[in-house]
Amino acid sequence: MDIDLSNLENLGSKREIEAEVEFDDLDFQQRKVQIPELLKLNLVIYRGDKSFIFNGHIRGNFSLQCSRCLDDFLLEINEEVDKEVLLKDIKDLHHFDLNELLRPYLFLAVPIKPLCDEECEGLCPECGQNLNEGDCDCQVEDLDPRMAKLKDLYDKKD
Ligand SMILES: [Zn+2]
Ligand SMILES: [Zn+2]
Questions:
Q1: Domain check: are 98 and 21 in the same one?
Q2: Whose atoms come closest to the Cα of 136: which ligand?
Q3: Ordered per-residue pLDDT tens for the chain, 158 residues
Q4: Ligand 2 being an ion, which residues bring their Cβ within 5 A of it?
Q5: pTM of the full structure
Q6: Are 74 and 9 contained in the same domain?
Q7: 79 and 31 both lie in a single domain
Q8: Which of 27, 108, 111, 130 is most buried, by the most CB atoms less than 10 A from its CB?
């Protein structure tokens, strides 16, 4: 999304922007982060002495793959935007690319280990069944030694 900053000439002048912005999917550490819908942007742009200051929020949903069960899920994001851009770094005041300014904030919103739910049960290591959808018939050995001792006790009682 291009915006025109040329009318913000005077120190202290400001402009508010409320918009829905389209973004391309992100490539993040070899993972695809899909942005299935427009993101909502609320932004105030202030004219400083030698810069513009961008302050606001970007909100919406990412579609990510859960790192445990591998299902796709929607993650709600809400990132604060706070950025100063020097006048000398702006090539064209009439066509300032907001997406370029905002994209780094989208990367910040991507979790290192995405989970569809904190309690996600993941996949069975034996058969690959999604354990959120129900248990499988695999006998997964209990590797906790304390539990093994308890089991011994019970076995002796019999
Ligand atoms: Zn999951
Ligand atoms: Zn299984």
A1: yes
A2: 2
A3: 999 999 998 998 999 999 999 999 998 777 789 999 999 999 999 999 999 999 999 999 999 999 999 999 999 999 999 999 999 999 999 999 999 999 999 999 999 899 999 999 999 999 999 999 999 998 766 556 666 666 666 666 55
A4: 124, 126-127, 129, 136, 138
A5: 0.79
A6: yes
A7: yes
A8: 130
